[in-house]
Amino acid sequence: RQQLSQITKFSTLHPRPEGHKYAYGTAGFRLLGSLLDSVVFRVGLLAALRSRKLDGETIGVMITASHNPPDDNGVKLIDPQGEMLEASWETYATMFANAETDDELTKEYLAVAEALKINLDSPSNVVFARDTRASGPALVAALKDGLQAAAADYADYRILTTPQLHYIVKCINTGKTVTPYGDPSEQGYFDKLSTAFKIVTKGKAKPPTVTVDAANGVGGPKLKELARCIGSDYLDINIVKNEIDAVERLNFQCGADFVKTQQKLPVGLEPAPFELYASLDGDADRIVFYYVDEANKFHLLDGDKIASLAATFIRDLIAVSGVDLQVGVVQTAYANGSSSKYLTDILKVPITVTPTGVKHLHHAAQLFDVGVYFEANGHGTVLFSNSSMKTLESFEAQNPGQQDAVTTLLSLAALINQTVGDALSDLLLVIAILSHKAWGPNEWNLTYTDLPNRLVRVVVKDRTAFKTDDAERRLVEPKGLQVHIDALVKKYKSGRSFVRASGTEDAVRVYAEAATRLEADELAVKVSDLLK
Ligand code: 16G
Ligand code: ZN
């Protein structure tokens, strides 16, 4: 068939580097940009197939390596409702990427089509975008070759944040339904968020200025445009680390990952006490907040703090409105013990714990009426179920107070990017809540005190030997190790520690927390020593 010969022909232009083994991991393929040409070409083929399998619904392809260094790049697929690629397809992605020859690739393409009863002549629609990395344009060219070879229709959305592309994919696929998600364009995204922000903050004092470290990535110019749409009467944002043309500075000594893992300020930032600061990552799907006190001491407001702020606010609005909906929170093992205790004991909000990785949290959050999920690293969002939306939309308020609360809840549902964690949307959410409460970062931070914690990366001979259960909180293999960890943990007040294999690097991670900084560090070191 013509399509198959096209695939073989185009594939010769995108040879697979010898000896490299690729794997579609928690965040798609991610490695040095120079090793990705053949992978991205093949992802194009897979995206075309995925769309055909779903009756021509539009699939997204995002080219980014998020918080990783400038020379890295990556590629991941977005399913029609703006969700991560369905897990069973990750295997095909890995298989295509590792096909040894052009012929083998073409055979696999046909084999997948046959196994899944995909008609290769049916329509196929794909949209894509990239972040600001230097290797992006060449990878886009490879992707276009893949899409062309597989005879897919495609649209190039150029430079976007990852969550913007998720939004656009969902808008396209819901466009002809009774509940379209929004206008499938970047302007549509800005309009939706800015309109909602203005409604949510209506009648509240103008929020104080927020300084945002954009990690020298795509989030900077996008946030600038978003702030312009909102207008300076409603919002003052000061953007720093916004040199997107200095490609080597992307994520360098700044950005959400740096601030969270180093537990310190971006290099060069000179903060004023008690003012609010935030850092985005390289594709603007993560955000953490922070401030310094009068003694210049750094205080981090991470994903756990965002989750409890959002859950409290939404729970209180629901209570005022009189609507019968339940808020739940989804966390991972990395959530600070104090945050879990605060949610359970003080807020009385149910918690689900899942393994690391957005797709796990997202699915668990879908089980609540309103599901708040955040990883401690700052990736997260809030999901309103379809039935909750219907309940809110049809609710007949008995008084102005109830009406106000319902209007605010509905506008929050529009302000929040419900397809995936979105740093820009989360930024507006936090600002809106703080302005409702008339809180600064210090008041927010005082809701509970984080236990000191330490994350250690340990290189081991074979990380696949480390198997966990109970949402990664207990090791089942290597056998016997968990008993030793338990024995250590018992010696520390408020001690907690777990070991899991990284899904993105060849290493295992040790997390420890305890009542004091000294003890948390000591516990982390002692548990790490057990692994050697
Ligand atoms: C990926 C995940 C992120 C997770 C991180 C853990 C997605 C889109 N991203 O970046 O959520 O926190 O991996 O990395 O799922 P690790 O397995 O190396 O600790
Ligand atoms: Zn990211």
Q: What's the SSE blueprint?
A:
Layout: H1 2-11, E1 29-32, H2 37-53, E2 58-63, E3 72-78, H3 87-98, H4 102-115, E4 125-130, H5 136-149, E5 153-159, H6 162-174, H7 186-200, E6 210-213, H8 219-230, E7 237-240, H9 255-262, E8 276-280, E9 287-292, E10 298-301, H10 303-321, E11 327-331, H11 337-346, E12 351-353, H12 358-365, E13 370-374, E14 380-384, H13 386-393, H14 400-415, H15 423-437, H16 441-445, E15 453-458, E16 467-469, E17 474-477, H17 481-490, E18 496-501, E19 508-513, H18 517-530
Parallel strand pairs: 2-4, 4-5, 6-7, 6-8, 11-12, 11-13
Antiparallel strand pairs: 1-3, 2-3, 8-9, 9-10, 13-14, 15-19, 16-17, 18-19
The protein binds 2-acetamido-2-deoxy-6-O-phosphono-alpha-D-glucopyranose and zinc ion.
2-acetamido-2-deoxy-6-O-phosphono-alpha-D-glucopyranose (16G) binds at residues 26-27, 356-358, 375, 377, 379, 502-505, 509.
Overview of this structure, please?
The strands form five sheets. This protein has a five-stranded mixed β-sheet, with helices on both faces. The protein has a five-stranded mixed β-sheet with strand order 7-6-8-9-10. It has a four-stranded mixed β-sheet with strand order 12-11-13-14, sandwiched between helices. 41% of the residues lie in helices and 18% in strands. The radius of gyration is 23 Å and the shape is globular. The model has no long low-confidence stretch (mean pLDDT 96). The longest helix has 19 residues, at 303-321. It has four domains: 2-159, Alpha-D-Glucose-1,6-Bisphosphate, subunit A, domain 3 (Alpha-D-Glucose-1,6-Bisphosphate, Chain A, domain 3, 3-Layer(aba) Sandwich); 188-298, Alpha-D-Glucose-1,6-Bisphosphate, Chain A, domain 3 (3-Layer(aba) Sandwich); 303-445, Alpha-D-Glucose-1,6-Bisphosphate, Chain A, domain 3 (3-Layer(aba) Sandwich), CATH 3.40.120; 453-530, Alpha-D-phosphohexomutase, C-terminal domain (TATA-Binding Protein), CATH 3.30.310. The chain has helices spanning 2-11, 37-53, 87-98, 102-115, 136-149, 162-174, 186-200, 219-230, 255-262, 303-321, 337-346, 358-365, 386-393, 400-415, 423-437, 441-445, 481-490, 517-530; strands spanning 29-32, 58-63, 72-78, 125-130, 153-159, 210-213, 237-240, 276-280, 287-292, 298-301, 327-331, 351-353, 370-374, 380-384, 453-458, 467-469, 474-477, 496-501, 508-513. The chain has 532 residues and is an alpha/beta fold. The chain is built from 18 helices and 19 strands. Bound molecules: 2-acetamido-2-deoxy-6-O-phosphono-alpha-D-glucopyranose (16G) and zinc ion. Zinc ion binds next to loops. Zinc ion (ZN) is lined by residues 66-67, 281, 283, 285-286.
